[in-house]
């Protein structure tokens, strides 16, 4: 059952459009073997709900620690928005698990959002600050909690990321590699995505020190999380979509050596990109 609708593409023909993550270049290491095993694993947990999924009875929602999304019917336009209550006031963090192809609920169940693909009002265009390159903009106002798009590309190992980072740095190229760090029972899991050569519309999102979006790890069919971008404020039309590249970096270095100047133009801009990799 494929329900994703992604009608975007790239204007630059050196980049291949991929709607979802793909595995990166084959490497003869244990890290790569683990990556592929995870990539090809199907989550077997699922719910047996009729049509829709409601909090107390749905296994997917109870594994998620409650409702992942809430339904809002404002201005006669219904929206399914991220449930921010799950992210505030609790020290326990649950994974966001959407319903999957084994679940018995319908494709219209309110726990299926990221799997349906990006919103329709995204526009790629050059930024006013030309050295920032291209950026992702919205042609419509977007309410807080809306799923924008995935940050999708090649899923690579830390070793591949280190080599690609070094090459990008030496060649003065833009860097698209994003490393998501997740902690569970004091174990660190890293998911590294590189949309440089294979990527979706999310690869055009620039960094900001005062962003209007953030990344949420979302699991659908496999244990490998999708890097889902949600708005964290109401976004006016014609705004640039941004997130903070540093929000998932551990041990942020204080040194600004080798870090690019940040051109986000926000009042509280810290002046430099969060990490020397960018
Ligand atoms: C994921 S890409 C974003 C899209 C990119 N601007 C493009 O033209 O394809 C990341 C790169 O964009 C640039 N960039 C993103 N945010 C920036 C910022 N706040 N200030 C300066 N450069 C930025 C950096 O060169 C960075 O390596
Ligand atoms: Zn469901
Ligand atoms: Zn259910
Ligand atoms: Zn800044």
Word description of this protein:
The protein has 278 residues and is mainly β. It contains 3 helices and 15 strands. The chain has helices at 30-40, 59-63, 158-170; strands spanning 16-17, 22-23, 69-74, 77-82, 96-97, 122-126, 134-138, 147-150, 153-156, 178-184, 187-199, 206-207, 213-219, 226-231, 242-243. The strands form 5 sheets. Strands 1, 2, 9, 10 and 11 form a 5-stranded mixed sheet that branches. A 4-stranded mixed sheet has the order 5-13-14-8. Strand 3 (69-74) and strand 4 form a beta hairpin. The longest helix has 13 residues, at 158-170. It is globular, with a radius of gyration of 19 Å. Bound molecules: S-adenosylmethionine and zinc ion (3 copies).
The low-confidence parts are none
Order of helices and strands: EEHHEEEEEEEHEEEEEE
State the helical fraction. 10-25%
Number of helical segments with 4 or more residues: 3
CATH superfamily of the domain at 16-40 and 113-243: SET domain
Main β-sheet description: 5 strands, mixed
User: Which band does the percent of strand residues land in?
Assistant: 25-35%
CATH architectural group of the domain at 16-40 and 113-243: Beta Complex
Determine the N-to-C terminus distance: 37 Å
> Which hetero ligands occur in this complex?
S-adenosylmethionine, zinc ion
In terms of structural class, how would the helical and strand content be classed? mainly beta
The rounded Rg comes to: 19 Å
Query: Can you tell me the CATH class of the domain at 16-40 and 113-243?
Result: Mainly Beta
CATH topology of the domain at 16-40 and 113-243: Beta-clip-like
Number of strands: 15
Shape: globular
Mean pLDDT: 92
